[in-house]
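For practice. Any example?
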Amino acid sequence: MLTELKVKAAKAAERDYKLSDDRGLYLYVTTKGYKSWRLKYRFKGKEGRLVFGPWPEVSLSEARDKRDHARRELREGRDPAIAQRKRKLLGDAGDDSFENVARRWHETQKDRWAPIHADDVIRSLERDIFPQLGKLPVGEIDVPTTLAVLREVENRGSLETAKRLRQRMSAVFSFGIAEGICENDPAAVVTKALKPVNKKKRQPALTDLEQLQGLLVKAEESGASPVTKLASRLLALTAVRPGVVRGMSWGEIEGVDLDGDPFDYPDDAVWRIPAQRMKLVLDRKDDEAFELIVPLSRQAIEVLHAMRPLTKRARYIFPGVRHGHRSISENAIGYLYNRVGYHGRHVPHGWRAAFSTIMNEKAEREGRASDRAVIDLMLAHVPPNIEGRYNRAAYMERRRELAQEWASLLCKPLIAPAELLKLPRR
């Protein structure tokens, strides 16, 4: 058997030659003194050869490790030369930890998602999965380990979150299988072991105007971040889905100079929400016919003017406190309402029901039956009788009037948005 001293002492000769070690491993020395490690083996009756690399870059002990790995592949019925070529073809993925593989998966997928959803996906893994499994090799994670991590999420009452995390973990494992890093998807197996998610109940919503005004007053008098307070107010004014407000960007605002006179209220100011950010089936996400145009009331424009100096150059109008390149948390507004005493009484999504109920009742009192269809359009309820399409500018004049009526009702007891930035945080 060879030693490092024998390998080092090997000199060039008139002909290339071999120095044998053990179990097929040998050092090949050329006439110019170049030394490399090689393995001679037989697979299915045929002789094969592997080159492990040059000495001293590959030491004797490393060469023996590579030999032992190749012989294990032989025992498992695989040709080590083919396995080596596959590894070279796939490239060295480097760190095969769950976190590394998950981030590579996320990078390949994020362009097909809306930015706000892409942020939510990686943030959920960073919060609940990476601290536990992030450093483990993805191929070493088994079913009981996967279930144990998801059980922790379930135990805090977040059954829906556990379900979403399982789906995302399963996608990561499938990505790892495709890259040849792991062989199984343990997250697929645990599906039936998770607690069933209760059927969604109707989300709690106040529909009394004075109570809604009281909620906003309490929320805005609290010690919460001004960004969260202003996001809450804009959500209330526009009655869109909370996730749409979270992902709101300056490029979506049209018809108003937000760097100009803060008391300029143009009649054609709108918020144009791309279809990809709406709650639509996948085949409608790229169809401009399904974008939503939200007419902006004077009070909504005031909120945007108040936010403009803070986040003019930010990716989102309402960024998170800890990470300025991300939007506010999906729970930020809901937590605010809970803290000021509205837990189980009103959730952020409840503004849609509040707007619909109050404005429809108002329309009925005033004998304007046609307003029901207009209100549905403002809530982005797609009429089924016209193949799911609707005129994006339909009833825009009346929609603008209703948006202004709603804003004027809601904001009577509220201070100016700019004043919220001056209140001390407690």
Notes: The first helix runs from residue 4 to 9.
